[in-house]
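User: Can you write out an input/output pair for a complex, sequences first and structure second?

Assistant: Here is one pair. Inputs:
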Amino acid sequence: MGETRDVLESEIGARAVGTAVIDEREVPVAFANSEADVVRLLTLAASRNWRVTPIGSGTKIDRGVPREKPRFAISLRGYSGVTAYERGDGTLTARAGSTMAALAQVARSGGNHLTPDVARAAHATLGGTIASGISGIDRLRYGPLRNHVLGLRVALGDGSVVKSGGKLVKNVTGFDLHRLYTGSRGSLCVILEASLRLFNLPEREIALQTVFFGRAAALASARVVLASQVKPTCVAITGALDSAWTLSIALAGRADVLVWEEGLVRDAIGTFDRFEGELARAKIEELRDREAEASVHAACLPGGLESALARVDEISAHDDHAPHMFIHPGIASLAVEATEPTLPAHAAALTAARARVELAHASVSTRGAFDPLAGVAPPVRRLMTDVTRALDPVRRFAGPRAMGAV
Amino acid sequence: MEPKIADGLRAIVGDRGLTTNATRRATYESDGLAHVRQVPDLVLMPRDTRETAAALRFLKEWNVPIVPRGAGTGLSGGATPVAGGVLISTARMRDVIEVDSVNRFARVQAGVVNVDLTHACADHGLFYAPDPSSQKACTIGGNVAENSGGPHCFKYGSTTQHVLGLVFVTIDGEIIDLAEPCVDPLGLDLVGVFVGSEGLLGIATEVTVRLLPVPPVVETLLAIFDDLDSACDSVTDMIAARLEMSAIEILDKHTIDAIEASVLAAGYPQNAQAVLLLECEGSDVEVAAALRDIEPILARHGAYDIRRARAADERARLWAGRKGAYGAMGRIAPDLYVTDAVVPRTRLRELVRATTDICEKRGLKVANVFHAGDGNLHPNICYDRRDKDELARVLDAGDEIMRVCLAAGGSLTGEHGVGLEKIEGMEWLFSHDDLAAMCRVREAFDPKRRMNPGKLLPMRACMETRSAVRPNEPRNG
Ligand SMILES: Cc1cc2nc3c(=O)[nH]c(=O)nc-3n(C[C@H](O)[C@H](O)[C@H](O)COP(=O)(O)OP(=O)(O)OC[C@H]3O[C@@H](n4cnc5c(N)ncnc54)[C@H](O)[C@@H]3O)c2cc1C
């Protein structure tokens, strides 16, 4: 640690070196303020044969399988700012260290909406969000993050800076390597800059909430809303077994359409508490941020949601603590605030229910014991390894252990 | 080609799965990039994934180049055969394997024709969104390889946003089964990188696609202009106002004339210099709200008539005219060079003009019909490929169109792919390092670069890697 710090300090100055905790280990962090800094740090790592990992603000670093041990981390937090905002074309390009909140604000000022609306947006960086492949609470309406990444500029392990895609809403020139980089969790590259597609800024935003006694009733009502002509940004059910369940519905759009949609929701579920403007935003953010703290995240097919829930219930029945759950029936995903000892059972049960599972905020040993790729066929795994090797032949990046690493 | 190769392949796919006859092989000599032709040495038509894998394992021994082919409607030469190679067609992979209406996905074989998929799910109230104008002929496998678009991709996004899973076979005959529908991949997004890879990474044999519910209300409008510039400007304004529509298409005077003179006559007014074909979908309230916003923009830009399709058959006619435009242009000249570029939507008028000028300066007749809402231009140059001088002027115009669009912040292709046609342009848009990264990924799938060689990635860019199978240059003319 000491030697690494010394080397980093002499390379980029003492004030640009700090410490981060990654997977329960203290790791020196070099703060890059420019693309040239990133390249310099990668060149340094190459000259010493050190393994590195890129990080943003670290808000999602403890999700998924633990990483191989990096010698140091390269933080892009200081490399921020919008490089192009094409309001009329509905696109935005920004440096990787920009926070999602700052970018959302820029988009808003020009009448655009930036998706994904991710947890802890004031800290979460653009690069970290894309690298973790996480979508936001607004996914039901706007779709997954990967659909909106138009192009990326990244640094590869050998220090070369390469681009893929571009800044246009439609473009099929060349391989879509940005699809590979999105969600690659730092195992392939350092994301430097990204271009995103923007959406129409809704005129109004409202949040509707109502409480049910029992999850089944809440789910049934949510399904009625989802089957209607309403196009919510989010439909979520939260609660714990044997307690009250809250159904939250976020609507956004033109004022005249919202009046009609609200009427449809009323027809579907009866009365509700209604929040508008800042209050609505606060409700949505509360749900978004709390859900991100859950320890098991799973996504399945809509038809598999009931069986996934039944598996969680089975485990909870043997536990004193009924976990709080966040269920999004519209996108068939759920998050469970399970206790650490029950995590392996939850992960295994949900995987058996054919859900895609990720553990978060759990100890390294718990996360390390669960291999989300366990069910992936050997040829697919091998190909992932080959692709990783092709882009990073000397394994400069300390990626998550399950991300194609052998 | 060595007779033992045909014998070995016949043992795998049977007589019906192999074409050796010269006349029949000649029908595969080109795709929609008609001036580049090469008769394939063999045409193989496996029935499924297993046969494809067995054939590729066998062909590995012979080290020959492979070219995948769907319906051959591609416009950039992606399916042009390579001399000394085997063309693998998906023409016998036509099964819709599964339509799951609860989870809203379908699993199909790669040779299923785009429109047949939508027919197969219509009874469930579902549809497949990407709708290339060639949808009556092109295959889902071809759509995946090209990441195809279409008029309604303005709202729904190109093919990549609708592919939930894939089965493909690598050049070595290994089956990569990623068929399980998933929006977020487990591990690296191999499906994401395969889509749009133009047949260089393997042969897709099965595709799992997302289906969408048929919208309750659809309104189709035809806005009529007496100049093309105003039609372009109205689109730029609609985009800036972020109107939520599902399709925004422009057709110019030459296109209108060609359609109206054909069996697809749709009732487009022949005194117009341009028309905008617009569609809004959703609930009646949403559609009504969108129409309230659209009409003033159209009027401001001088649309002197705005017609609403009154019934489903009228809507169908308007779209049939649009989608049949390329065919209709056959009346103007025997060949059509369909160029494809994307530009920022803020600069539509300027670039449509520039591309038209480029053609007219060379004495070429150009007709514009394009996905204006996505900034996806298609200046279509009418020509006769037997006229060498005209062909040279067409290709020269195509090059200049690419350069002008790139200089304006645009890109080489919005949906037709790079193929053979734009391979040189790749070096104008991408740096050596950018291309090297693509070559490295390609080599992870196909170390000897036997799959669709000579397409998409310039050979020079991949030079530093191991020796490649070099395709013979296809002959021109
Ligand atoms: C009249 C007309 C209108 C068109 N309109 C549109 C439009 O609106 N939008 C649009 O995007 N395109 C359009 N196109 C272009 C073309 O139809 C599309 O690119 C289409 O996706 C090609 O499909 P195909 O089955 O014909 O593929 P092919 O032309 O046979 O092949 C295209 C490419 O895909 C590869 N390929 C084919 N099948 C596979 C497979 N199973 N696995 C791996 N690689 C494969 C081939 O090697 C080739 O590189 C149009 C073409 C015509 C002629």
